[in-house]
Amino acid sequence: MSQSSPFFSIARAHAGAGGRAAAAALLLRHPVAQLPPRFHGLRYYPSAIVSPAKTLNSHLGLPRATISSFANADNGSSGQADATESEEEQNGESELSEMAKAFHISPRMAMSISVVIAFAALTVPLAMQSVVFHGTNKMKALAYLTLLSGFYMAWNIGANDVANAMGTSVGSGALTLRQAVLTAAVLEFSGAFLMGTHVTSTMQKGILVASVFQGKDSLLFAGLLSSLAAAGTWLQVASSYGWPVSTTHCIVGAMVGFGIVFGGVNAVFWSSLARVSSSWVISPLMGAAVSFIVYKGIRRFVYSAPNPGQAAAAAAPIAVFTGVTAISFAAFPLSKTFSIAILQALACGAIGAVIVNRVIQKQLGDLLSSEAEKIASADKANAQQVGFLSDIAGPTGAQLQIVYGVFGYMQVLSACFMSFAHGGNDVSNAIGPLAAALSILQGVASSAEIVIPTEVLAWGGFGIVAGLTMWGYRVIATIGKKITELTPTRGFAAEFAAASVVLFASKLGLPISATHTLVGAVMGVGFARGLNRVRAETVREIVASWLVTIPVGAVLSIFYTLLFTKILAYFM
């Protein structure tokens, strides 16, 4: 069954009666059969939808995350068959069948994908120079084990953290799950491979006192492997329950654990740990506050406008210009000279705004003109002033679909950027300890900075894509479906707010977590509609998982450190 998001099925409509019929057909989940015969050439596929009463209420209380948010496609008779099959397999459903239902593929295809990924994970390291470089069989075995540990951590980053970029897009319907995973897979790997840092430190995050481990390479090697294993284990547990947790906090907790084992309490910079932990409060609060303001602004200046569709089309280039300019200047400056960097960022923002404006006019221009004519001829006596915090009723009919189409498109753009940036940034959580461990085997760990080979960056990118493909739907379901009900406008407000907070807070040196910020941003758009619009049970589970991430990571790291120390005594 082929699927597509409704926001990518909008075609230019002809004027007149045909245009009005095409506008009516833009309503979500309406089949193309409603168009007159001359419009039957337009391609339209209904998006996968969720029945909140059935799906959320029946699954929020379960101890494990399921794919119910994506399994109930609105596909006519086949949808009834899927529902019957779902009821029959509700108890004892296997991991592969969940993956198959999430992506609407056969269990055999899901099995084939899993087998190919597992085979590649076990065999590719054998051909990498990081393994071939070592002469003795023992050193090759250690290098192979190290690469597998890094892959395991990267796999779990993909399974959990990629929901930061794509969860809201899937929840709002701007992208189907399959589209989101395929898009994120390409962009995450590209970001990790092209933008991932090529230099790392043996003591990442400034958590451990480096002098404590000088001259103790074998112990440091065991600790680095333990960090990868411990952080990966907790991420896997969290992903199985659909909890979005911070991968940075996982690796920090794991490093604290092995630091305490080898160096005692004096091996840890506790002030740095307290600073990292403060992001539990700072990140969600900032995300919620900014998303609340952004969404209220959309409702005030777009929903309450005389022509909401035209207001959305006008706001889109402004938002893109602002976002692209800020991102180009703060995250990817093209020049070290301030004035030149500002001009280049403004140029990038202007180019982005022009492109978005032309796409919107091409896709929705005729429909916008038709609606403008209707509004121009309508009575404007009912126009009234509304406050910023007023409860404003949204547009309906074709106007609503124009607004959703515009913001759905912008949401996809922001999700693509976040996915690319995430691959370049968070791959270091897996590759940093991996590269440090490999450098110890190669005898160059004494350097403060370690060069990361290109093949190791690619290896981390592959691990992220593999985890996203096999388990990513679990946390995406939580972010997109189980915190609050999302639409393209709400999803855009959450993503735009989260990206803005992470970008500027990082530049200002504030402790911030992208995962916590996005969850807070999603809660913020829910609070903007009323306190009862946020599901308290889901929020409680997520916050509890945040609070235990660093302690659990430390405890698991202590266990793995003691275990690996005994095992590595045979090799080193």
Structure in words:
It is a single chain. This protein is mainly alpha-helical. The chain has a domain at 102-277 and 420-483 and 537-571. 69% of the residues lie in helices and 1% in strands. Residues 1-63 and 66-93 have low confidence and may be disordered. It is a multi-pass membrane protein. Residues 71-96 are annotated as: Disordered. Keywords: Membrane, Phosphate transport, Transmembrane, Transmembrane helix, Transport.
Spans of 5+ residues with little confidence (pLDDT < 50)? 1-63, 66-93
Mean pLDDT: 76
Run of helices and strands: HHHHHHHHHHEHHHHHHHHEHHHH
- Give the strand line-up of the largest sheet: 1-2
Supply the helix-strand structural class. mainly alpha
Helix content bin: 55-70%
Structure annotation, total helices:
22
Overall 3D form: elongated
Number of strands: 2
Cα distance, first to last residue? 54 Å
Described by strand count, sense and barrel closure, the largest sheet is: 2 strands, antiparallel
Q: What is the alpha-carbon Rg in Å? A: 25 Å
Tell me the β content. Answer: under 5%
Which features characterize this protein?
single chain, 572 residues, mainly alpha, two-stranded antiparallel sheet, 1% strand, phosphate transport, membrane, phosphate transmembrane transporter activity
SSE inventory with pairings:
Elements: H1 17-25, H2 52-59, H3 68-71, H4 77-88, H5 95-103, H6 107-123, H7 129-132, H8 137-160, H9 163-172, H10 177-195, E1 199-201, H11 217-240, H12 247-263, H13 270-277, H14 279-303, H15 308-330, H16 338-377, H17 397-426, H18 428-441, E2 449-451, H19 454-482, H20 488-508, H21 514-527, H22 536-568
Antiparallel strand pairs: 1-2
Helix pairs in contact: 5-6, 8-11, 8-18, 8-19, 9-10, 9-17, 9-19, 9-20, 10-17, 10-19, 11-12, 11-18, 11-22, 12-22, 14-15, 14-20, 14-21, 15-16, 15-17, 16-17, 17-20, 20-21
Main location: membrane
InterPro entries: Phos_transporter
Biased composition (Polar residues): 71-83
